[in-house]
Amino acid sequence: MSRSVRLSKRFQSKRFQSKRFQPAASSSSLPWYGLGLAGIFGVSLALRLWGLGRFNTLVFDEVYYAKFAAAFLQGQQEFGGHPPLSTYLIAGGIWLSERLGWGGPETYNGLSGLYVSTISYRWLNAVTGAVIPLVLGAIAHLLTGRKAIALLTALLAACEGFLLVESRYALNNVYLILFGLLGWWCLLRSLHRLHSANKLTPVVWLNLVLAGIGFGASVGIKWNGVAFLAGAYLLWIVAWGMQRLQQHGLPSLPFAPPLSSLSHLNAGVWALSMAGIPFLTYYLSWLPYIQLDPSTSFAGWQNRILDYHSRVGGMDAHPYCSPWYTWPLMLRPVAYFYKTAVPGDPVPVVGPDAPTAAGDLIYDVHAMGTPTLWWLSTLAVALLAGAVGYWLWHWGRSLWAARSGQTEPLLLPPATQGYLSAAAFVVGNWAVQWLMWMRVTRCTFLYHYMSAELFTVLGLALVLDRWLRNAQSGSRWLARGAIALVLLGFIFWMPLFLGLPLSADGLQMRRWLPSWI
């Protein structure tokens, strides 16, 4: 008996016949799933809105994005090196907030070019950031059919400190992430419908169109939003390749639903929904901006963006630049705000720092992830990559044997096939999001890894759920310990996420690496 056949029989054993990745009806009368998601959203939103106007100034790149939005409201173009969709969103937040009178007198300033409240150009980011964990959880649910994984994913994402920081200021990364994840959510919904109906129904088409709009809108925030679409292309090509092998009687590693339905989308359908619709969405996003100055053009703006990024300096252009290979270990976070004050005095927002003295308070907003979550997620995606590589190696052996005229099938039981599909989704998207920066020579920052890191959070949820359902108590306790470390780490480093006052000793206690300064 060949080694591959023995492996196939081994993995069809009773241990691997669980319904780990199969939908299951809940026996509880309580709507625990809905209550859990509502609780996660409520806490996430509260953390983002609490003290939102604390720093009555422009924090980090708010000096660009808040000003761009204020200029747009005054009918002016302010070029910032990126497409203008985030400018419309922040401008809309300012417009609505000022009409509803949000924010007290102490939150107003004219630093953006308009005399408005800091809350007006931050609140929409806060709401967007609170929604992202729910969308990532919904993607986990569609991938696995398990509500427990969806809740765990949403919980872990809600504990991501970098996402919390980015959600509290008028920056644009949260919009890029939200649109990209919504694109994937709609695409997975269309694949579920396609798997059930086995044909392109109107609902399937609707979700495909919405997916294309989501992916196009992500590119409309920043060009690197195209990585979400690239991840979809990668998995579509793999699914088609495996289907072709099956048609020729050769071994394959088939995807489980819903990813298996990717091979049912032919080139024409794919080109329309995943190329035509995203490009149209991106093109339309420029029209309001171009109308401010009809002498400009769509093509002209693309050339300006390309020229801008070609002229950005290298890794020595900014003290917080960091190369792509350091991101999985979070070696160089970014300081967004740093001020000192004497206890009892108001938070300083302009001018030089107060003299350092005993008892001084330090306000430090550090754009960094929750270290325990970040490092555990990096470990999890490495484990998933190893699992995918393991099965690819055995598939390669089976394929080689079949081409040599030997019968060498590689069978996967449903639970293993489902886990492999979910792992391939995580690893494929993470790799595209991360490795696209390998050849970039301009100054890059840790926040360029945020999209990739959220896929590793999903990967961590997959690994922890597998351990929690393991028959061995050691694995279950290991998973519970990892979740506890994430929650405790989120609380411990929260002063750096929210900019809460710290003593010098308290700040130093949270700087675990010298490069975190």
From TrEMBL:
Domain ArnT-like N-terminal: 41-247
Alphabetic keyword roster: Cell membrane, Glycosyltransferase, Membrane, Transferase, Transmembrane, Transmembrane helix
Gene Ontology cellular-component terms listed: endomembrane system; plasma membrane
Any one GO molecular-function label of the UniProt entry: dolichyl-phosphate-mannose-protein mannosyltransferase activity
All residue ranges annotated as the Protein O-mannosyl-transferase C-terminal four TM domain in the record: 298-516
Alphabetized Pfam families for the sequence: PMT, PMT_4TMC
UniProt subcellular location: Cell membrane; Endomembrane system
EC number: 2.4.1.-
Pathways involved: Protein modification; protein glycosylation
TM segment ranges: 30-50, 123-143, 148-165, 171-188, 200-219, 225-242, 263-284, 373-393, 419-440, 446-465, 477-500
Function: Protein O-mannosyltransferase that catalyzes the transfer of a single mannose residue from a polyprenol phospho-mannosyl lipidic donor to the hydroxyl group of selected serine and threonine residues in acceptor proteins.
Protein name: Polyprenol-phosphate-mannose--protein mannosyltransferase
Species per Swiss-Prot/TrEMBL record: Thermoleptolyngbya sichuanensis A183
